[in-house]
Amino acid sequence: MTTLKLDTVTHYINGEKVKGNNDKYGFVYSPSTGKRIAAVPYASSEEVDKTVQLAKNAAVKWAKTSVGKRVEILFKFRQLLVENTDELAQLIGKENGKTISDAKGEISRGIESVDLAIGAPQILKGEHSVNVGGDINAYSMKQPLGVVTCISPFNFPVMVPLAMSAMAVAVGNAMILKPSEKVPYSAQLISELWEKAGLPAGVWNVLNGDKDTVNAIITHSDIQAVSFVGSTKVAEIIYEVGTKHHKRVNAFGGGKNHLVIMPDADIDKAVDSFLGSAYGSASQRCMAVSVAMPVGQKTADVFTAKLKEKVENLRPGSYDDESADFGAVISAEAKQSILHSIDEAVRDGANVVVDGRNPDVEFKEGFYLGATLLDNVTPDMNVYKEEVFGPARTIVSVDSIDEAIQLINNHQYGNGVAIFTNSGRDARKFTQEIEVGMVGVNVPIPIPVGYHNFGGWKGSRLGEGQMFGPDTARFFTKTKTVSERWFDQSSTDEINFDFPSS
Q1: What is the pTM of this model?
Q2: Positions marked active-site
Q3: What single string gives the DSSP state of each residue in 253-285?
Q4: DSSP H or E stretch at residue 74
């Protein structure tokens, strides 16, 4: 394995690395080796308050900076992300465990969000109407909120922070990022790149921490908006507490994503698509396919046989092992939770088609699980009802497309879904009737490109804001509408008590 020399984990406050003064801290582990690699400080409520005040001061000046100047800094930041992709990928692999190639894909998708934010001058254009009545002109403007925060997950240490924050900064806000305490290093390097790009001190800040730090952030009176990605259980808490404290909140939770295979589908393509979308990143993606749903017994038999053969050949390995198909899961606790889900499913009657519970790996202390495939899974099993954030995937067979649609629509999550078919009629029926936020037709992971909106339905998202796309500009701005008239000196208007109209 590559040996990385890593700096001490710090906060990043007002343009400076800060060790922190709280006695509370946690440990960072390398999923690939299982070894402790650092201690990460947890910000106290006092440190949160100090950071917010510094960000608030910076936000005033940043909001008055021309959008052209702000975009100029984003251009430089984007170039620095490209130039430092290899180093970022190494950091992601070290702290998250995903393979280097997968990490580079994540960075590329994150840069798409920066590309969209570079278009802020166009996105921020308001509306203007001349002489709406009584010589009055009306126009609107979009203004930044002030201090906003993003709370990002462990599974995408670069893509999600960029998707959440690039537009927020571009439209004139000051940002406080609270990364997952399991993956603090990527945020440190992102901070350095913002600084090199010329972002003024205080506009971008990073506070490490745990739930107490998060609580101090989402209840702070000077933070105007909160964007969160994580489990649905935590998303519900973030949304409830944040909105109670008058924040604008979007909270993205978990998913249980289905891939429906119709009898007329190209089975080989469906199998290959399922493999990468289901087991990539050790299945630690909210958009990972969780359930294969073949329609008809013949489809199920052929699909399962071909899938079994390929799943058996998948191999987990260290993040810098170029021959590995995917890496380790994030922690020992995560590994045990996944094993519990598999064992419970077997007790409930599921059939183990491929058993990955004891993989043959080089680093025995790493948090590895092989690819597991379960058949004969029914909708009443917990392994179907709950999100399993690891490489344990299931097959649920159905008799018709209508049954598939009904089962998916009845599920508590509605993040992503896909259908594989060669029938335009079935594809149209599926896309129109399915109650899921992101839909793929012969596309296994329907994550929109950075200039389209991202967001699930039902238990997968709370709040109305999106994470990718133009809706991020709406989420991080407030609209002001101005009605304006200039009197002629000869005007002799009389007092009028009627409700104004055109």
Answers
A1: 0.92
A2: 286
A3: ----EEEEE-TTS-HHHHHHHHHHHHHGGGG--
A4: helix 67-83
